[in-house]
UniProtKB/TrEMBL annotation:
Positions of the Histidine kinase domain: 256-451
Transferase among keywords: yes
Keywords, comma-separated and alphabetical: Kinase, Membrane, Phosphoprotein, Transferase, Transmembrane, Transmembrane helix, Two-component regulatory system
Regions crossing the membrane: 42-64, 174-193
Protein name from the UniProt record: histidine kinase
GO MF assignments: phosphorelay sensor kinase activity
UniProt-listed PANTHER family: SENSOR HISTIDINE KINASE TRCS (PTHR45436:SF5), SENSOR HISTIDINE KINASE YKOH (PTHR45436)
Cited Gene3D superfamilies: 1.10.287.130, Histidine kinase-like ATPase, C-terminal domain
InterPro entries referenced in this protein's UniProt entry, alphabetically: HAMP_dom, HATPase_C_sf, HATPase_dom, His_kinase_dom, HisK_dim/P_dom, HisK_dim/P_sf, Sig_transdc_His_kin-like_C, TCS_sensor_his_kinase
EC number(s) on file: 2.7.13.3
Entry's localization field: Membrane
Domain HAMP: 195-248
Reaction it catalyzes: ATP + protein L-histidine = ADP + protein N-phospho-L-histidine
Biological classification of the source: Bacteria, Thermotogati, Deinococcota, Deinococci, Deinococcales
Amino acid sequence: MTPQRPGSLPRGWRRAARLTPGAGLHSARVAWRHSLRFRLALTYSLLALGLITLITLGVVTLLLGSMERQFVDRLNERADTLAQAFSDPGSLGRAAGSASAYTMLIGFDGQVSSASSALREYIDSPYPFGDLSRVPVQNTTVRVVKRKAGNFGTLWVGLPEDDLLAARQSALSALLLALIVSPAVLLLTGWFVGRRALAGLESAANLADRIDPTHSLETLPLPGREDEVHRLLAAINRLLVRIEAGQAREKQLLGQIVHELGAPLTVLKASLQRAEERTHDPEVARAALVADELTFTTQDLMQLARGQLELKLAWHYIPARTLQGRLDRLVPGTTFVGDWGGGILCDPDRLTQALRNLLANGRRAAGAAGTVTLTLAESPERLTFTVHDSGPGLPDDLGERIFEPFVSGAGSSGLGLSVARQIARLHGGELSGTTHPRGGALFTLTIPGAALGDEEDEAVEEDPVPAVS
């Protein structure tokens, strides 16, 4: 395989990096029933339904009341006209036209002396309805009133109220239909109106969800209208500006600290190494290891200060044995297992830093008498480095937080695992950790295999990656 020039990322690795879990933030869609749009539409629909119900009930009540009054007035007018005719015998002829199909004359003895054609069956019989104001006559409900008929007795006048009942039933049916249809219509209307009104807010939420503070803090676009959404987004943008300024100050401070520590540590490390070579004093050797630890801690701090956006990788194709020799010198006592006879396409310094952090953590957890094993497995698609120690394993309460900066379960700085995962992802790979079933921590670092560089279509244009300056 042809080695890649420094600063050039193979096409297959770019594809693997794009497919790497965690390479970007994915916005999660909120369930419709929990969305602000749905809650606003539901609230609007319920309020509108309540108002429509009250207004409709009022209108129907007034309408039915008016119909009831008209019916009663009509019945009373007819009864009064007939009663007046019986009181004035000369006007009986004129009143005949006002007689209804439901009229009876009840004598003083309680017998029906005369009746209209629909009630002839009651003639010469006792009055059958007593004090009822509504009576059934031939499957018809008749509203009844009584009037004094002068010397003839009592006049009984009825008026069928089937039309009134039908109108009342129609009004109630219309009201019920409106109460059934209105909520659905109002909810759909509110949903579409809310969707249009909150479109800017939803778009801004999607953009804000994709913001990754480790890469960029670009401000959100503002809508044209200066409404509540505009003010909210403007406030978020001001917050992003303050966060970015704070991050810049933190990076500058970390860079200054690392710079101030780097030179003295380099001199101290070289002096201790020369002293160890001359004296072979174990205390000096232990101090040299501490100096190495501090040197790597400053490197981790520098990478944290730079972040992924500023960090550049210098790609080289190196023998796996070269990487093994580096790690063996940095973390003595490591057991190397697997196939170390192949080659690795990587940034050697960064990959050494990541694996050294994992091995140092394993050695710290296992202690001087424990074991730390680094296994390399190769496939056409990826290289897998597995670090297993004989320590107590990962704390159950930390979980994925173990990879966050300054989170540690072993009393260390808490930067090693965070930096190691960052380096793995920059290579297009991933780092995960768990507790081994037989005890101890188990970390797995994967990077794409060098063979992926030959699998891409030659027509794909290569994206250059700047070399380390």
